[in-house]
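User: Hi! I'm working on a homework problem where we have to compare a predicted structure to a textbook description. Could you give me the structure for the chain below?
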Amino acid sequence: MKRKSYREPLWTRNFVLLLITAIFMYITTFMFIPTLPLFARNLGVTDPSVGGIIILVYTISCLASRAIWGDTAGHWERKPVYLVGVIIMATAAPFFGLVSSLGGF
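Assistant: Happy to help. Predicted structure tokens:
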């Protein structure tokens, strides 16, 4: 007796929404990396090594936050955790233009 296997379609509404938000989140993240030293220079930082330190701190904070959010998503439902992350990124990214000092940055 053959058993029929049911395959759920890949291109569902939820998958497309997840794909679109992930693309925009990663574009935002990857656009910050090359522009962070330039932004620091516009704030008055003249030492080029500070730009490297800024990228280092940004990279370490990205890794740490991914570990924390990944653990949180493992304990709670993934969709609400993902939506909170999207909301945080969407609200925080426009405010980077308002930073006027390296400490605030």
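For your comparison, note the following. The CA atoms of residues 32 and 58 lie 9 Å apart. The first helix runs from residue 13 to 42. Good luck with the assignment!
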